[in-house]
Amino acid sequence: MSTITHHEVTYADGVKKIHYLATGPEDGPLIFFIHGWPATAITWKRQLDAFASVGFRAIAPDMPGYGQSTARRIADDYCQESIVEGLMALLGDTGRDAAIWVGHDWGSGVVSSVAIQHPETVTALVNICVPYNTIELGWDGFLPLVDRDIYPEDKYPYGQWDYQKAYEEDFEGTIKWFDQDVAGLCSLFSQKPGPRPDPKAAAEAMATVRKVGWLGGLPKPPSAAQLGPPILPPEIFDSFSADMQKTGFWTGSAYYLHHRRNAEYNGPRNHKFTNPALFVHTKWDVTCETKESRLMEPMRENCSNLTEVTIDAAHFVMFEKPAELNAALFRFIVDAVPGQWPGYSDSEYEKTK
């Protein structure tokens, strides 16, 4: 197994830094794993190990606001323009011009912004749970796609995205609630899924946050002691939880404060992407529901070389089904961008029968 090494790159005139994990041969094809909310670089460890083992140079950063990267309580640090500046510095630190970019949750919004702003740096694009041309375009990128059969506009004007409006209306109150038990929330997001929820009931909880409160109005997050053991291996979970306890939720949650600014930065819809793209649907993600709703439409309309795969998992698919996710990524690369598979173009491989 390849050794994972720690690195950091400074940018913004040396004011900010991004810490990142790297593994695999330095001359291997480059792939980035970009986490979302809440996660850190180490939560991609099973992807880093798998990709390094077949010859990729695999890299996962602590995104700005997380882990060992700069985590200032300055909201401007977490708009997409600022985040993309950091990732371009990260790419430059590798000495490469382009990579395969894999993003999950807000990481999907970030890799989508990279594809819009710097398409020449994206050999292939992989979005997990959140499609291209949605969240990175601000409210107009995803609110019109709400399934109004489930969320009538007169009752749920923001649909399942009500919780995002809660950030805008009472950010400090939200963070105060989260930070009552950071370790407990980390454990909650890392639980082995139980019986699959009724989609409408689960969706209702996210659509009423401003009215009822978080997690159905609990006075505080559940503690780790109230929950079962995390599905993540202990060494990964302990590192993730320690990092989140160090930063708290303010900085990572500030990504939600810039819908208007992100829309100005990335412009209107219909950004065409012609290189290979993969979307990973997760069957039981009731908030980022992409199988029955219209949320997937913009990616289908604007990615001309698109592959889709569905994994029987909930939102945190890399926690729950790492082998299945790795297999889907491997197959996509071999099928759609074979020149990025280590040794593919150099091997004397032929089918004789």
TrEMBL record:
GO MF annotation: an example: hydrolase activity
Keyword terms of this UniProt record: Hydrolase
UniProt xrefs under InterPro entries: AB_hydrolase_1, AB_hydrolase_fold, Epox_hydrolase-like
Pfam families: Abhydrolase_1
Highest taxon, organism lineage: Eukaryota
Residue stretches making up the AB hydrolase-1 domain: 29-135
Coiled-coil boundaries: none
Any single GO BP term: monocarboxylic acid biosynthetic process
Similarity comment: Belongs to the AB hydrolase superfamily. Epoxide hydrolase family.
Protein name as annotated: AB hydrolase-1 domain-containing protein
